[in-house]
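Retro notes
What went well: the complex prediction finally ran end to end.
Inputs used:
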Amino acid sequence: GESVGLHLPTLSVQEGDNSIINCAYSNSASDYFIWYKQESGKGPQFIIDIRSNMDKRQGQRVTVLLNKTVKHLSLQIAATQPGDSAVYFCAERRNQGGKLIFGQGTELSVKP
Amino acid sequence: NAGVMQNPRHLVRRRGQEARLRCSPMKGHSHVYWYRQLPEEGLKFMVYLQKENIIDESGMPKERFSAEFPKEGPSILRIQQVVRGDSAAYFCASRSAGGEGEQFFGPGTRLTVL
C-alpha cells in the first residue's frame, strides 16, 4: 500500500552534534521528495527537496540523501541547534503537481 | 510577501454543526491542497484544487466534506454535520503553476468538535 515511513519516532542529540533523520518510502515510481519541519502549533515548513534523478542535495546546514536502490531518504542537519527541535516529516510525490504522501514524523530533541 | 493564510486558526463546533475553513494561497499561486493531521500523526492528503476546478479529491470522505476554490476569494473546506472524529488540524498548502512541486503550508485551522 501507500506509505512513507520513518525508522525512528524520536531522536535526541546534543547541541552542536550532527543529526540524521531517516525515511523509507514504498513506491519506486515517486519522482520527488521533500523534507518538512513542523514546530508545535505551526504548519509544516519546507526545508529541502530532491528529485529522483539526484542522490544528494545540500542546503544551508542540511543535506538530503536519496538511495533509490533501497528506497531510503535521509536528512542530515549539521551542528544541530536548539531551534532545530521539531518534528520532521518526509514526503513523496507520485506525479508532477500531485499530492504529497507524508510519513509519520520524527521528533528531534536538541539538548543544550 | 505574505505566506499562505488560513482562518480561523481555532474553531470549536458542536456535533451536527457546520465548519467552514478558509485558505488564501500565496500571491501568484493558483494550486491549493488541503491536508488533515490527527494528533501524533503525519498529514493526510484530502483534496487538490486549481481555480474553479477540483483536480484530485481522492482523500476526501465521500459524505459531509466539500471543497471549492472560486475564481475570486479564498479556497473553502466545508464540513457539514461535524462529528467528534472530525477534530483535527486542517492545513492548506499552495504552489505556483510553474513550481517544481514544493508546497508551502499555512498555519492550519485546529477544529475541535464538542
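What we learned: Chain A has a mean pLDDT of 90.
What to try next: split runs per interface for comparison.
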